[in-house]
Amino acid sequence: MTSITPPLTTQEPPRRAPWGRWGIQSAAWTYVTLLLLIPLTVIFQDGLKGGLGTLWQSISMPIAWSALRLTLWTSALMAVINAIMGTLTAYVLVRYKFPGKSLLNAIVDLPLAIPTLVTGVMLVVLYGPQSFIGAWLKDQMDWRIIFAPPGIILALLFVNFPFVVRAVQPVLQSLDLESEEAAATLGAGSATIFWRVTLPALWLPIASGALLSFARAIGEFGAIVIVAGNIPLRSQTAAVYVFGEVESANRQGASAMSIVMLSLAFAMVLLVDWLRKRGRKDTEE
Amino acid sequence: MTTVAQPTTEVNASTPRPESIRSVSVWRRRLLIGVVVAYAALLILAPLTALVSGAFAKGIGASLTALRDPAVFSAFRLTLYIAFITVAIHALFGTTLAWVLVRYRFRGRWLLNGVIDLPFAVSPVVVGYMLLLLFGRTGVLAPVLEALNMKVAFAVPGMILATLFVTLPFMAREVMPVLESFGAEQEHAAATLGASGWQTFWMVTFPALRWGFIYGVILTFARALGEFGAVLVVGGGIQGRTETLTLFIYRALDERQYVGAYSAALVLGLLSLVLVVGTELLRKREK
Question: What percent of chain A has pLDDT over 70?
Fold first, then answer.
């Protein structure tokens, strides 16, 4: 019996017919091409068939331009707040022990589990004109959250809460305390330690988390259409604008804005990819 | 030599400081925890509680009556139908895709791998609009569809395609790491012992990637249940025909049927929550 074993282990795995391999590979390609690549090609082809001049013309119309501007500044502000609060949340979750810590950790993931439309409904119930808080804010301070930029930013913060936290958390965990302790031994104050030792090690995950949340914010629809309504020039974002143009059969406007949104989001994703690769290279050196 | 001595003198000089440092750090610690907990509570928990109280504002009876509306029933049925078909297609082809990406090296692999994540960055409205450009009345494929007497836009097939687009990454991204960590040795061993390709897959590979597969299925299903923008644009939200649960909520809000809208939103939110949190708990137990 023992004589059989050596030849078996040294034997190369039997060669299979290559058509099986080709078949399974082309199945994967067909699946991705049909579902993703063809639709994406069609929209770029449709929006660019009049040339970049026509695209620019559609985007620079006042309503489209204000929608794009609103989307960009609310998303950027959200990304900044999210970067700060996400880093803080990750720091507290990694460095401190306190009652309710695992609950907080679970809450971070909640936004991923809740459909964005439901998020929008929640915010309207809480801050809408019929709600206690909404009515109070309007009467006392003439401040509106729903159908206005603050509502958009709140919705975006809700939906994107996990991204910075989950990017920073593992890096902070793997960061050894030695350099921080060394800095403390050398007499550095804890603020100095945070700014000069801890934060420099974290800027890469913070930046990639914030950029990813920015990319997703550009296209957010479900939460925003409920919270912001559809008021052109005031609370209409780019995604809501595309929706309106599709409804009113303005193909050119819809395609132009879609291309701008897609290009911005893809650029962000590529940037994040590049940052991560650079980070990996840095740690290897 | 002086440079070596310096740190020790620093430590000696700072020995009386720890007490004050500790009391400062205790307060900073309390402040940081307080800020973060307040942020999470205001941002996430307050809206959640508001929805629960909004849904039951007129009593549980009113909410249940609103949910018994036949429109809710048919919307829920359509949502489940679309989600099941989406899951079935992705379970088959998403696993194939993961397999191809992990086990084979070929030209264009980086492209295939990069393209999978694109749906995360595409606005759902744009997804619906792309499908209209393809299958709509003036769409690229309109003549073909007319010849075949098929309706995709403003009909269920278009909504399934939209959901497929949006949920494409989940299956492949859940199965890939499991396949990677499992390695090909056992498959080679099975092949050496004379197992056919199918036998190897069903008796060696599939049992090993079972958990990645199950998580992928649940996440795809949960995401499919909650899809809104893409199915709204491509399906049109025609009541009784292309109205899913999310589209019902949207219409009910528009028609000021608040109890119905809030109750349906609560049901949908809880359902997705239970699915995703349940998966997380399962995953933790596996570890």
Answer: 92
Q: Which residues fall within 8 angstroms of residue B135, CB to CB, at 6 or more apart? A: B141, B142, B145, B152, B153, B158, B161, B234
Same domain, B136 and B196: yes
Domain boundary among A49, A69, A92: A49
Contact B248/A at CB under 8 A: no
Distances in Å between the alpha carbon of B51 and those of A112, A127, B22?
17, 11, 42
Asked whether residue A87 falls in the same domain as residue A190, the answer is yes
What's the token pair of residue A99? Answer: 């009652």
Contact B136, B56 (CB under 8 A): no
Please state the length of chain B.
287
Residues A224, A244: Cα–Cα separation, whole Å: 14
The first and second tokens of residue B270, run together, are 């809880």
User: What's the CA gap between A149 and A156, in Å, rounded?
Assistant: 11
Contact state of A186 with B227 under an 8 Å Cβ cutoff: no
A112 in B contact zone (CB under 8 Å): yes
B60 to chain A, minimum CA–CA distance in Å?
Answer: 17
Q: Please write the tens of the pLDDT for every residue from A177-214.
A: 777 888 888 888 777 888 888 888 899 999 999 999 99
Cα gap A285→A279, rounded to integer Å: 10
DSSP state letter for A17:
P
Region A156-163 average pLDDT: 96
Crossing angle of helices B258-286 and A101-113, in 10° steps, is 120
Give a yes or no: residue A7 inside a domain.
Answer: no
Residue B234: name the closest of B97, B137, B127 by CA.
Answer: B127
Q: The whole model's pTM is what?
A: 0.88
Which segments in chain B show pLDDT lower than 70? 1-24, 287
Inter-chain contact B249–A88, Cβ cutoff 8 Å?
A: no
**Would you state the pLDDT for residue A17?**
58
Per the structure, the complete domain to which residue B142 belongs is given by 60-286
Give chain A's domain count: 2
User: Which of A13-22, A154-163, B18-27 has the highest average model confidence (pLDDT)?
Assistant: A154-163
pLDDT digits (tens, 9 = 90+) for B30-69: 999 999 999 999 999 999 999 999 999 888 898 998 899 9
Chain A nearest-CA residue for B184: A13
Query: Measured between alpha carbons, how far is residue A221 from residues A33, A76, A217 in Å?
Result: 25, 16, 9
With b meaning 16 or more CB within 10 Å and e meaning fewer, what string describes B110-126?
eebeebbebbbbbbbbb
B130 with A42: Cβ contact below 8 A: yes
Is the Cβ of B136 closer than 8 Å to some Cβ of chain A?
no
Contact yes or no for A219/A42 (Cβ under 8 A): no
